[in-house]
Amino acid sequence: MNQLNSPNGIDVDSNGTLYIADQYNHRIQKWLPGASSGTTTAGITGSSGSSLNQLNKPQSVVVDSIGNMYIYDGDNRRVLQWPEGASQGIVVAGNGVAGTSLNSIDYAYDSKVDSSGNIYVPDFNNGRVLKWTPPSSSGILVAGQISSSGSNADQLNQPSHVIFDSAGNIYVCDYGNHRIQRWLNGSSMGSTIIGTGTPGLGSNQLNHPYGIAFDLFNNLYVADSDNGRIQRFNLTHA
């Protein structure tokens, strides 16, 4: 239980407990502060599958304030809500089949949950971000187009990760367009706040941005993957 196999996503709860999407072991590992090994808190070690007690290459995990885990279950193309201590999850987004309909996810590397329990999924292959409000079986489009990738202001190209602020604005790692897009709450268009749309090493450029995170001071950190660096941007006046 002290080993991992291609971990892909992590989250830390308010107690400092670390949750890890242990991709090729098809499980979520929970590591208490100071522990030298983890415990399996979702999935079955080494056993992939589509049953509700199984995972198949989980890509991300986030934990809410009451201990529910939300897992993007990669090759099962679904998001599972996994209550603390439960032996299986509940499907809250996706239907398990790749597609372009609003109840489908083609593929994703991330999912996020806001304080109201809404689930956001950057649908990488479909160039869009969908929002699910449980118990709805379909999502609604909140960024990008239904199934048309591109570089226009109303389009995305391989969105990899998403976060949001307290006003409900959405920030998207637009991986294939080498930029970060901000979509104001309810808007049908995004605006480029970081990047030029062209890959490069300049301080205002990105090359396949993969992950984003805010700190408490409104700084946005970007994992600028193909440049091998982390960039920090202050958005106070963006």
UniProtKB/TrEMBL annotation:
Task: Tell me any Pfam family this protein matches.
Answer: NHL
Listed A to Z, the keywords are: Repeat
What GO MF annotations does this protein's record show? zinc ion binding
Keyword Kinase carried by entry? no
- Residue ranges of the NHL repeats are 1-34, 143-181, 205-236
Which top-level group of life is the source organism from? Answer: Eukaryota
Q: Which InterPro entries match?
A: 6-blade_b-propeller_TolB-like (IPR011042), NHL_repeat (IPR001258), TRIM-NHL_E3_ligases (IPR050952)
Q: Please state the span of the N-terminal signal peptide per the UniProt entry.
A: none
Protein name in UniProt = NHL repeat containing protein
**Which species does this protein come from?**
Adineta steineri
Organism ancestry: Eukaryota, Metazoa, Spiralia, Gnathifera, Rotifera
